[in-house]
Structure formats: C-alpha cells, structure tokens
Amino acid sequence: MSLTSFGPANLIKRSAETHPLTWRLRDDGEPVWLDEYQAKDGYAAARKAFADMAQDDIVQTVKDAGLKGRGGAGFPTGVKWGLMPKDESMNIRYLLCNADEMEPNTWKDRMLMEQLPHLLIEGMLISARALKTYRGYIFLRGEYTTAAVHLRRAVEEAKAAGLLGKNILGSGFDFELFVHTGAGRYICGEETALINSLEGRRANPRSKPPFPAAVGVWGKPTCVNNVETLCNVPAIIGNGVDWYKSLAREGSEDHGTKLMGFSGKVKNPGLWELPFGVTARELFEDYAGGMRDGFKLKCWQPGGAGTGFLLPEHLDAQMYAGGIAKVGTRMGTGLAMAVDDSVNMVSLLRNMEQFFARESCGFCTPCRDGLPWSVKLLMAIEHGEGQPGDIETLLGLVGFLGPGKTFCAHAPGAVEPLGSAIKYFRPEFEAGIAQAKPGVPPLARPIVIGA
User: NADH-ubiquinone oxidoreductase 51kDa subunit iron-sulphur binding domain: which residues (predicted)?
Assistant: First the structure.
C-alpha cells in the first residue's frame, strides 16, 4: 500500500510550497532523522516562534489560519487553544497528542509518526510554547510499535540538540516530552477517555464541563490535539496565514491540505496530501486509479468506519467538512473506503457493529445495550432469520443512539453507517427477513443482550 503523496503517474511532485506535511518524505520510506530534517528547514519554524513571536501571537496565528482538528471532529484548533487559562499562576499544564489512531481504514497518523517523527515533535514544541505547557505526552496506539521506536529515538535526538528539556533555544522555556503507549482501546480516541487512560484509570469518557482546558490531566489545564493537526503548526508559523489559506481549492471552507486516501479493491490504494476541496472523484479515479478490473464501485465511506455510506453519484462532492455534509455525512478522517459490488451490506454492517459494540466503554445504556442489540438483529438478518419489524427496530436504534442521546460520540458514529446502509440498500436487509411463524408476534422474538 502506497504511503506517498505523489499524484497520477507521479507527475505531481511534493514541494514545501504545496505539500507542507509530506515534502520532506524520503522516496525509500525510511524515517527522516534529525540531521536530514534540519537540512530540510526542520525546526526553523520553532526557532522563529521562540525568537520572534509572543506566545499569544502564536495562538492568534493558528486561529487566523483556520486550522481545524484533523482527527475527525474538525474543531478549530486556535479556538481550542484559546480556552486554556490565561492565569500565569497556573504554571502546571499539559499538552497531549492524540495518537490513538484506531479508526478502521485510517493510517495517516501512522505514516507521519513512522517517517517524519521530528515534524510532530516540532509541532508539539511550538504548541507547547504557545500554550505555556511544560510537559507533553504522545498517547500512542499500542499496536504502533514501529512508530513508538521512531518517536522515542527522535525525542532523544531533540533532547541532545537542546530542542527539548530545559532552557530550550536559550529562551528559559522548559518542555519535556514523553511517548506513552496505550493498551489498545478505540474509545481512547475520545480526548477525556484518553486522559483517564493516561492517568491509569478505566478509559471512560468524562462528563463535560469541566472541559480539559480547565480540568484535564491530574486536574490541571490540558490541551489535546491530533497528530496531523500538530504537524500543520510548523508550516503555518513558518509561512504565514495567507499562504496557508491559499492552499485549499476554490469553494472549500476549510484551509490548508489534508492527508486523504482510498482503501478497498481500488487499483492504487494509498495515502496522499491533497488540498481541501479536491473532489472525491479525483481522489478515487486519478489517485486511487478506480476499481480493480472485474469489480464495480457499489458505495464508499469518506473517512473511516464511523461515517455514512455514499453512492458513486456522490463522488463529485468536494472533500472538506461542508462539502461532504452536503451529501449527507461527515468527512471524518478523510481516508475513504471503496465497497465493491461483491459485498453484502448486511454482512459488512454486522462486522462493523460488532467492532463498535466491542469497543464501547459500557458507561451509558444506549451504547452498552443498543450496539449489541443491533449486532443480534443484523446476525439474524444475515442468516435469513430476521423477522418483520427488525429493520424498523434497527432504524429506531439509529435514532436512539444518535447525536445528543449518548454520553459521548462513540454510538452516534457507530450507527451512522447503519442508517445510511439501510437508506440506500434496504432490499438487501429485506432479503434476510424470514416469514413470521404463525401465532408469534413480529417483535416478540427475545433479544439477549451480550449473549
């Protein structure tokens, strides 16, 4: 699988002006270590931030650039930074990097950490300077063992060069950075569950408010940002707001570039850095090469398993949050999955909902009981044993587990693909409904949760 940002037939080459995230990548896929990174202008933005910019100016620059979170939620990064307290007496505060990349079909952060570890460290260093945080943690998905090795080596290199630790760049500013590997739970992608796990607690989301900016790790002000989000910071500081805004395509309300990709039975599955506003069709046809011979595109997801399914007719949508919202779902992580015409949607959804049910923290009733219930119904339909009313029950669960109905966003993301699959492929679900047995009410069949 390709982890490059080359365009069709490798005709579009990476450059610092157009590919701020990936232009430093080596063609052989090996990591870019400190000497090479600095030879490619690495840490120049950090030196600028420390020497020429006040801390509040860094926050304002990121805010003016319109950088949004790249983990899936898309919250404005500068706004989140602005929530951190201004009180200088609160000198203990933390910066967390959310590197718990467990969204199915998503591997963008892995590429950045494995091949450009110093880009993430520089992004965190600048961010720490802006937020006045003295300690940072990279909360890393436990299965990313190669990324852990590369990040730890890069941290040691940065320490030896005086770019981490005490009195960084002679500024009097101290920042320690640690790599913390998680135990492997999808729910840790939710920032307060991540905080609980980092503290050694069960990975349950916390009630908000208070928000992490006020009460986070060990009760102290904390800012949590995604890997790709933090990797955007050096280019914004180094090149300015106007340049960053100019990168996106006309019509996009989001700024900059985004790591996007396509998986599934496409000819060239991979990952590319592209401007916001590129159409999904361009991503699918020009970069991913369309479907392999003998397969036809049935539907696709724009950004991970927690986003709704779209049809081939939706490929002309622009890849930015508002563009995907216009066709009925969310952009999510921006790494799309193509579903071919050989796939049965009931089986696919049963597989997805099993994953989401297993990864639920079990804290709130709709998620804890509703997701296993959906799995039971889907398994029955998959085996042709569904009963009249099962599809309506599934649609009811989509509503009961929707936004605002659960403690966190896990369940709403889990049922979004289910609702869209029934919307577009209802006949496949109806085909699994058996005739009701005489004398048995359609909804009387017992559902044993968790059995």
Answer: 346-391
For residue 86, the model assigns a pLDDT of 82
State both tokens at 135. 């300690």
CATH of 257-340, one of 3.40.50.1010, 3.10.20.600, 3.10.310.10, 3.90.330.10: 3.10.20.600
Mean pLDDT value of segment 406-416:
92
Biggest distance spanned by C-alpha atoms of the chain = 83
The domain segmentation of the chain, as residue ranges, is 21-246, 257-340, 345-430
Residue 248's SS3 state is coil
List 165's β-bridge partners, or say none: 175
CATH number of 21-246: 3.40.50.11540
Q: Which two tokens stand for residue 392?
A: 């309506």
Tell me whether residue 160 is exposed, middle or buried, using C-beta atoms within 10 angstroms of its C-beta: 0 to 12, 13 to 18, 19 or more: exposed
345-430 belongs to CATH 1.20.1440.230: yes
Residues 185 and 141 sit within 8 Å (Cβ to Cβ): no
pTM > 0.85: yes or no: yes
Asked if 257 and 247 count as a contact pair (C-beta separation under 8 A), the reply is: yes
Backbone φ, ψ for residue 432 (5° rounding): -95, 5
* Alpha helix positions (H), 259-304: 280-281
